[in-house]
Amino acid sequence: VQLQASGGGLVQVGGSLRISCAASGSMLNIISVGWYRQAPGKQRDFVARIITSGGSTNYADSVKGRFTISRDNAKNTVYLEMNSLKPEDTGVYYCTAMRATGTWYWGQGTLVTVSS
User: Fold this and answer.
1) Which residues does 69 contact at the CB level (< 8 Å), separation at least 6?
2) Please, what sign has the CA dihedral across residues 68, 64, 52, 56?
3) Residue 77 and residue 3: Cα distance in Å, rounded?
4) What span, in angstroms and rounded, lies between the C-alpha atoms of 16 and 76?
5) What are the pLDDT digits (tens) for 37-49?
6) 20 and 5 Cβ atoms separated by less than 8 Å
7) 62: region left, alpha or beta (phi > 0 left; psi from -120 to 50 alpha)
8) Which residues, in sequence order, are CB contacts of 33 under 8 Å at separation 6+?
9) What is the DSSP annotation of 23-83?
10) Tens digits of residue pLDDT in 45-64
11) Helix (H) or strand (E) holding 7
């Protein structure tokens, strides 16, 4: 699976941004697609994921109520709609996919900068 993240950029505090993750290759037995982020000098942290079968979602506590993950199966694309952005949301956002075998796939990341 190849993952291509896009849509990052510079946004002001309180603003909104939508980032995308386009998947290509074999999606067979891919059970979830999601996002992690890494702030400068910090570890990579979980943000959100969506289960491919059924569409249930999970979010980190820090983004609940502000971020929404969704998918377009026809386009093999997952979106992360980010609202009420805060400076602490700044970081490189990485798209991930996990296969039922336990194999993880990572995209190249897209930079989101929230300025105050």
Assistant:
1) 34, 35, 48, 49, 50, 57, 59, 78, 79, 80, 81
2) negative
3) 9
4) 23
5) 999 999 999 999 9
6) yes
7) alpha
8) 21, 23, 49, 50, 52, 71, 78, 95, 96, 97, 98
9) EES--TTEEEEEEEEE-TTS-EEEEEEEETTT--EEE-TTTTTTEEEEEEGGGTEEEEEE-
10) 999 999 998 899 999 999 99
11) none
Tokens of 21: 């993750």
Whole-angstrom Cα Rg for the chain:
13
Q: Closest Cα to residue 17, out of 25, 9, 29?
A: 9
Position 26 scores a pLDDT of: 86
Task: Look up residue 89 and give its two tokens.
Answer: 């949301």
Q: What is the dihedral of CA 30, 34, 40, 41, to 10 degrees?
A: -60
* The pLDDT value given to residue 27: 84
Cα gap 4→90, rounded to integer Å: 19
Is the distance from CB of 115 to CB of 61 less than 8 angstroms? no
